[in-house]
Amino acid sequence: MDGILKRAATGSDAAEVYHVRRHLTPVTFRSGRLESVKTQETDGAAVRVVRDGRLGFASSTDLADPKGLADAAAATAVHGDLAGFSFPGVGSDRALSLWDEELADAPLDRMVSLGDSIVERLQHIAPSAQIDVSVTRALESVRIENTSGLAAEEQRSWLSVGAMLVRAKADDIFTVSRSASARSFGGLQIDSLIERLAQFLEWGETVVPGPTGAGRVVFLPTATLAILLPLAYGFSGVSIHFGTSPLKGRRGETIADPRFSLSDDPTAEAGERAGSFDDEGTPTRSTALIDRGQIDSFYYDLRTAALDGALPTANGYRGDPLSGPDFRAAPAAGVSHLIVGSGDATEDDLVRAIGDGLLVESVLGLGQGNLNAGDFANNVGVGFRIEGGRIVGRVKNAMIAGNVYQRLSDGLIGLGREAEWVYGRIRSPAIALSGVGLAGKG
Amino acid sequence: MEQTIRRAAVRGGSDYTEIRVERAQRTQIQYRKDRLEALETSTEFGGVVRCLVRGGWGVVVFNDLSALDEKVAEATAAARLVGDRAVDPVRLADAPVVEDRVTAQMQEDLRSVPLAKKKELMESYNRIALSAGDAIVSTNVRYRDAFREVTFANSDGSYIVQEIPDVAMIVSAVASDGRGNIQLGFEVTGGAGGVDLVRAKEEMARSAASRAIAMLSARPAHGGQYTVVLDPLLAGVFIHEAFGHFCEADFLFKNPQLREIMTIGNEFGTRELNVIDEGFVLGLRGNVPYDDEGVARRTTHLIRDGRLAGHLHSRETAHRMGAEPTGNARAISYEHEPIVRMRNTYIENGSSTLEEMMSGIDRGIYACRAYGGQTEFEQFSFSAGYAHEIVGGEIGEMVRDVVLTGNLFETLRSIDRIGNDRVLDGGFGGCGKGGQHPLPVTAGSPHVRIQNVTIGGA
After folding, report:
1. What is the pTM of this model?
2. C or N terminus of chain B, fewer CB within 10 Å?
3. Last residue of a domain, one of B202, B217, B232
4. ipTM of the modeled complex
């Protein structure tokens, strides 16, 4: 590692080395049976250099050849864009608690027995369903060094469980899935995962026609991704700088109902992307994006902040926000965890308040609307019809569509009081909106 | 290296062992508006060992290739953990032992074109898109290439080295009216070949930009049911996403109901409907001379004359379903085990012209290009890149925000006309399944007409 930085720094104005060692252990159960056990070790590094003011980037997993990596970065810098920013020299002074020794040391068969116990509980609630379960442990050690003097290092452990039930009848296939994740065995909330799945199976026994026209929808925390993805685009410093966000130049304006607040918080230890520094070494902090309906801030990595004349917000991440961390990608403005402020309604309150409409648990087709404009357009994966303030059955082939900015300003019915972590990336309560476009074949 | 890999594959205490070692070089270039956003190269060197013991799989992935025998031992131990309690043990269908070397076919070798030249080419397309009109506020031009050399060895004695080139490009432009109406136009292309595949694409840049501008004055589509004509690129994505994944046997063998629905010979649509998954067509992104289990390619008819004619198999699924492997076991890289995937999948030409399809449609939608798509079992959802109304048999005004949704089987049965103008394109992205994304594939089709399609909208 020292060798790479030294080599990369030679002849450069500045240099940075990002080195990650990842140990991933996925244990997979299909149709209720252990199918495979895998271990995946990744040892990779990425180098950024600035030469004559120009930025270069290269990555490699062939670390037996550090010279090759440093030289590849230098070669891209010759044709690279002007950097316009400096690497941070000061590390984070706060240490987050992201590592669990017990999880890190656990033998493979402990992961297998965790999977076994989940399969068994699911068989109990859904004896005739196909049951797929995965248990994955990720152990990661990240180190960033640069010529500004930074040498930051962190170890992170992560455990996630995914469960999918498929109930097939002659002309109907009903699939529900849920996931849970934590930094230790003890933190995993398996009970609520099982309870939720059991409830969905019960609600889903009958298939009913979906509502059409402009209607009311309760987005459960898992479905809020449909709403939050366009917001993540709109608040990105990249969209702001390049003028593809409708929020450009509108800081301080009210764009949502005063009950709605949104922030990005990489210091939330219960989230998968938590770190005391981001992937550029900038010390992390929480950034308010929407504060009680008003635009507070946008989010930036180092380079975009410099381009836009803003301060970096420690949102430089490597790898697409949806597909997960990847050291092979250069840092770009990205969200860590989106945190939606809670309201005061229970889920039952929201269903009653809706009266007639949809309760959506999951959506398909993320990102297929006009994200730049704030549009969402999704097929409902798992959704339930609400009639007379209660759930009456499951809908199939339903679609929801709308514009998040319009819905959040004119159509916010209410927010749940209990926020839930979903996908390790979002902490949100249920969100009830009116005026959502609904279509379906009934 | 060759001797080390060969020896490691046949040694050890497993029932079956396979090793893949990959060396890859990748380049990525991205322009956004007036900035060069990315100019990146990456080098990948790594391997995977997969072992089968008493019908259970163990897999080990690594970057350190110095101790291959240890990795085989580790994978064997993991496999034993699974195999010791296997209720439904995995068996592999027989596959011929192969010794071969497949070299890449490229006119303009990806590895010998200097980075600066690739960059200049993208810069030229970006300039065209960016200067197409005052309404264009931003652009996004991305180029990606990869040259992979994958060595495969298994304990049956196969040893195959394949060179796999891949190049892809997307040109997109964003137009704004300055009052919150922001629209996107894009064009994509991709193939298994050299830099020549992305040369002379100025027209892509012009059409992406002019479409973004045109969409500013398009009305949003009204939700409801329509007769829809899909252009070849959207129809290709439909057949891949909505139907092709159903033919993947790993998905079928665990589900008796589905297997029943997907029984060979079952009628799925009009007699004119033919769907093919093809292992090799020179230059196509989905080419797989040998799959990642060392099985040689073959052509698979998925639908012949409207009836289901085939499934896609790995060695494991072929054994379970009493079929032959079809060469569809693919992994996106050494970090993953092979799973059943498509290659070059398309609807074969029918007999209708576009005019014949349009005639008789009172009120319909002509949906073009795929902006996105997702399926969950028989439910699918796709958004069109752009669309036009069809009024009185004629292509009318442009409409936007067209998302098509429905049930696969109903929709296939509702295809009533198939065009004679097939187009195949690998696009920019790729297919995603089981955490493996993007896998280079090609999809294609002629124009197709479908009755009673649900369009989502406000």
Report:
1. 0.93
2. N
3. B217
4. 0.91
